[in-house]
Amino acid sequence: MQSSFKKILEGYQAFRKNYALGDQSIMKYLSDYGQQPKIMVVSCCDSRVDPALILQCDPGDLFVVRNVANIVPPYEKDDAHHGTSAALEFGIQFLKIKHLILLGHSQCGGIQALLDGHDENKNDFIDSWVSLVKLDNVPTHNVDNYAKLALNRSYENCLNFPWIKDKVANDELRIHLWFFDIENGQIFAYSDIDKKYKPLDLNTF
Ligand SMILES: [Zn+2]
């Protein structure tokens, strides 16, 4: 426990050196000119799935919202507090990002909780949250296959946000479905043409 905390203190020192010190630093630039990310990622809270690390990004490259099981909730304009939807609005409407990546992953604890079934004594919020991607008549109870199907539900939810739907229709925004396999550290991108997930490489579009 102590060693992992020491690790982050040392990591912070390295961050300061690499990104923040000096007049030419990335942080100074981003402070002077503001953030202009072109890519947004919806990813899971899972400690093994950090988009900025997996994609080797610098500060300012990615606008990220993380939640349990990387879910895009339905478009619900009501008085409830919609954190993920607010992040989507900020990224898409105000930062005008061009690519929205929905990043699922293998061994997802949130999806596993959904497959394990609801027990009202078990938790306060998790079951209710992951029920957003509960799918009827799904032929699989494999957690990884289910996680991929859940990405489709999130994708459908995206298109119910009017400003997302408009931007996709006008080619101002592209939505990507990606799946990160933890064991191999490999991303698979859903191909609309082939209707299946294929390894992400430099030619993926
Ligand atoms: Zn997860």
Q: For the record, what is the CATH homologous superfamily label of the largest domain?
A: Carbonic anhydrase
**For this structure, what is the CATH class of the largest domain?**
Alpha Beta
Principal-axes shape call? globular
What is the topology, as strand order, of the major beta sheet? 2-1-3-4-5-6
Which helices and strands appear, and what pairs or packs with what?
Layout: H1 2-20, H2 26-33, E1 39-44, H3 51-54, E2 62-67, H4 83-94, E3 99-105, H5 109-116, H6 126-130, H7 143-158, H8 162-169, E4 174-181, E5 186-191, E6 196-199
Parallel strand pairs: 1-2, 1-3, 3-4
Antiparallel strand pairs: 4-5, 5-6
The chain binds zinc ion (ZN).
Characterization of this structure:
The protein is built from eight helices and six strands; from the N terminus they run H-H-E-H-E-H-E-H-H-H-H-E-E-E. The mean pLDDT is 95. The termini are far apart. The longest helix is centred in the N-terminal third of the chain and has 19 residues, at 2-20. With 205 residues, it is of the alpha/beta class. Strands 2-1-3-4-5-6 form a six-stranded mixed beta sheet, covered by helices on one side. It has helices at residues 2-20, 26-33, 51-54, 83-94, 109-116, 126-130, 143-158, 162-169; strands spanning 39-44, 62-67, 99-105, 174-181, 186-191, 196-199. The chain has two domains: 1-34, no CATH class; 35-199, 3-Layer(aba) Sandwich (Beta-carbonic Anhydrase, Chain A). The protein is globular and about 60 Å long.
